[in-house]
Design brief:
It contains 10 helices and 14 strands. The strands form 4 sheets. A 6-stranded parallel beta sheet has the order 3-2-1-12-13-14. A 4-stranded parallel beta sheet has the order 6-5-9-10, with helices on both faces. Strands 4-11 form a two-stranded antiparallel sheet. Helix 4 crosses helix 8 and helix 5 packs across helix 7.
Length: about 375
């Protein structure tokens, strides 16, 4: 009689978070989807990757990752803090909100891009909504070089987003008209691959507002007049040069973005933004988070580093200078994302990284430090 093979031991799924903050001139992830290769590599060695639009968006270019969660930055912060869960979906109906300030020709370019994703990718969109007033986007730059921005009519944006939800939208793509007269030198630096994205900070303001207010997945694509041909463009910025709109990657990402579930973790009900289920992912299931070593002040890292492996990538320089040590975060520093991928693979396998090197010191006997009573007794 043949003997049954022993059942293989099982372990829980391994989940990693990849964060590259927007608008801070990150050497990797500060341009047109140039952190997407990093996401692809990390996704291949983990069960679930959680990341955000700045990593996944490459204008006309994108890459479907079945095990990646596309989560807007504000929602990611809420998830990391344990206030929201992430519930996977098979698909979302996407609402499209267009800024009233977009000129007719440019509006048609975006509508054609949206129709193309319906016909070519099979995405489901609701009827689009135009804001009842121009949004009035203005761009700002901090002394550090990081970018941010303001919206003159946030009320108009939120009314349009509410109308989109009423039309059946489960995720919302916003296209706002951005100024064409950005700083010429800053724009040229960015196109050459050694500057800060002049638009990114304002884009984050728009998506944060919608997610915070409506609790729906949201991402933004700027509407801009096409730039003149420049044959010296950096490959890192080239994805933004090949079309009239940056909308396709946003629609592709939102089509499978997880829905937000309001905590607490074991409440048994989801509150206003969704329903609790066994498939919902929560912060205490995250095993590791990967960030640039000079941009460690983000809310997601501050929340997750208390219980997950924090990996700080030194080669991804930014306009910031916020180290993990300055904030008391116990992080493992690595030189590059190549090293980060290897560290994640070892961590998932339960292999101590030192075992992969030629150096293995002997064990030492543990001697506890004697406690000193404050009164000397």
């Amino acid at each position: 009689m043949s003997q049954a093979a022993p059942q293989a031991a099982t372990s829980r799924p391994y989940t990693a978070v990849l964060v590259v903050p927007t608008g801070i001139g990150a050497a990797v992830g500060g341009y047109a989807g140039d952190a997407l290769p990093v996401a692809r590599a990390i996704a291949s060695v983990v069960d679930t990757l959680i990341t955000h639009p700045n990593v996944m968006n490459g204008a006309q270019l994108y890459w479907p990752l079945p095990n990646a969660y596309y989560v807007e930055g504000y929602g990611l912060d809420q998830f990391a803090a344990g206030r929201w869960g992430l519930r996977p979906v098979h698909r979302n109906r996407i609402g499209l909100v267009l800024d009233a300030a977009i000129e007719d020709d440019l509006r048609w370019r975006h509508l054609q891009a949206a129709d193309a994703t319906r016909a070519t990718l099979g995405l489901e969109l609701t009827d689009y909504v135009v804001t009842d007033a121009p949004l009035g986007v203005e761009l700002r730059r901090a002394e550090s070089g990081a970018t941010w921005g303001t919206i003159g009519r946030p009320d108009s944006l939120l009314r349009a987003a509410e109308r989109s939800r009423a039309a059946g939208a489960e995720a919302i793509a916003v296209v706002a008209r951005f100024p064409d007269d950005t700083d010429a030198d800053a724009l040229q630096d960015y196109r050459q691959g050694h500057g800060v994205d002049p638009l990114a900070g304002a884009e984050a303001v728009i998506s944060h507002l919608v997610v915070r207010t409506l609790g729906l997945p949201c991402a933004h694509a700027p509407a801009l007049s096409p730039l003149p041909l420049d044959t010296s463009i950096s490959p890192k910025s080239a994805a933004e040069e090949i079309g009239y709109t940056f909308l396709p990657c946003v629609l592709a990402g939102l089509s499978r973005a997880p829905q937000f579930v309001v905590g607490p973790r074991l409440s048994g009900f989801g509150g206003g933004f969704g329903a609790s289920s066994s498939a919902t992912l929560w912060a205490d299931q995250v095993d590791a988070i990967v960030v640039p070593a000079s941009a460690c002040g983000g809310s997601a890292l501050l929340s997750l580093s208390r219980r997950a492996l924090a990996i700080a990538v030194e080669a991804n320089t930014t306009a910031l200078a916020v180290s993990p040590e300055a904030l008391g975060i116990s992080a493992v520093r690595v030189g590059s994302y190549l090293e980060a991928v290897g560290l994640l693979a070892a961590h998932r396998a339960g292999v101590h990284p030192q075992a992969l090197t030629a150096q293995m010191p002997q064990l030492k006997e543990f001697h506890p430090v004697a406690e000193v009573h404050p009164l000397g007794r």
